[in-house]
């Protein structure tokens, strides 16, 4: 009998292993897609304004400093739960005006504190952006971020 692995055993492990993991990753990909479409995403609340808010978010490159759902740069706070942080679950109107006031008040010019630039957003862009934050907060992100400060 040959020492160690035979050629055909090594080949079977290679093909069998490749097939096994290919099928496993395919199944996980299908599951992730299924979960996003049917479970985690509020498709009914996905209005034109929410979509426009995402465009405002992208056009102004807020992601260069912020993360949303963990994606982006780690210079500034996570914003997927900014709606919750401003009390949107208890009082949506107060959260709406609080977030707008914060964005309009920039830059704060407090020495030694990280700064956020000023953005000249129209009212319509601002409301869409906040709709986008509210909608994003409703995504079931399995307790991400791990604490409310983001
Ligand atoms: C150059 C980096 C930078 C960019 C770009 C930027 N921000 Fe910020 N943002 C910050 C920093 C830094 C803070 C926190 C500042 C502080 O705590 O004083 C902040 C805070 C915020 C907050 C308050 C978060 C909280 O929990 O209090 C909101 C809302 C926000 N940014 C929205 C935006 C939006 C919307 C855009 C794009 C239009 C944007 N930011 C682009 C740096 C940035």
Architecture overview:
Pfam families: Cytochrom_C. This is Cytochrome c. The chain crosses the membrane at residues 12-36. Residues 48-137 form the Cytochrome c domain. Keywords: Heme, Iron, Membrane, Metal-binding, Transmembrane, Transmembrane helix. By secondary structure, this protein is mainly α. It folds into two domains: 1-40; 46-137, Cytochrome Bc1 Complex, Chain D, domain 2. Helix content is 52%, strand content 3%. The protein contains five helices and two strands; from the N terminus they run ααββααα. It has helices at 7-40, 48-59, 82-85, 92-104, 123-137; strands at 67-68, 71-72. The chain has a two-stranded antiparallel sheet with strand order 1-2. It starts with 6 loop residues before the first helix and ends in a 13-residue tail after the last helix. The structure holds heme C. Heme C binds at residues 60, 62, 64-66, 75-77, 79, 82, 85, 99, 102-103, 108, 113-117, 119, 129.
CATH level 1 class label of the largest domain:
Mainly Alpha
Secondary-structure-based class equals: mainly alpha
Q: What is the terminal-to-terminal distance?
A: 61 Å
Give the overall pLDDT as a whole number. 94
Rounded to an integer in angstroms, the radius of gyration calculated over CA atoms is 23 Å
CATH architecture tag of the largest domain: Orthogonal Bundle
Largest sheet: 2 strands, antiparallel
The side-by-side strand order for the widest beta sheet comes to 1-2
Reading the helices and strands in chain order gives: HHEEHHH
Q: Write down how many β-strands occur, each being a DSSP E stretch of 2 or more residues.
A: 2
Low-confidence stretches: none
Kindly estimate the percentage of residues that lie in beta strands according to DSSP: under 5%
Helix content: 40-55%
Give the full name of the CATH homologous superfamily of the largest domain. Answer: Cytochrome c-like domain
Q: What ligands are attached or bound here?
A: heme C
Q: Which word captures the global form?
A: elongated
What count of structural domains? 2
* The CATH topology of the largest domain: Cytochrome Bc1 Complex, Chain D, domain 2
What count of helical segments does DSSP give?
Answer: 5
Protein name: Cytochrome c
Keywords: Heme, Iron, Membrane, Metal-binding, Transmembrane, Transmembrane helix
InterPro entries: Cyt_c-like_dom, Cyt_c-like_dom_sf
Organism: Halomonas piscis
């Amino acid at each position: 009998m040959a020492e160690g692995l035979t050629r055909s055993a090594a080949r079977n492990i290679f093909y069998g292993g490749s097939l096994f993991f290919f099928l496993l990753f395919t199944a996980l990909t299908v599951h992730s897609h299924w979960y996003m479409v049917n479970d985690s995403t509020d498709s009914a609340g996905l209005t034109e304004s929410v979509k426009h808010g995402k465009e405002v978010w992208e056009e102004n490159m807020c992601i260069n400093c912020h993360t949303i759902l963990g994606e982006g740069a780690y210079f500034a706070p996570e914003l997927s739960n900014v709606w919750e942080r401003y009390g949107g679950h208890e009082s949506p109107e107060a959260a709406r005006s609080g977030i707008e006031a914060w964005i309009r008040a920039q830059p704060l010019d407090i020495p030694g504190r990280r700064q956020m630039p000023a953005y000249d957003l129209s009212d319509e862009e601002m409301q869409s952006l906040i709709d986008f934050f509210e909608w994003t907060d409703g995504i079931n992100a399995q307790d991400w971020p791990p604490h409310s400060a983001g």
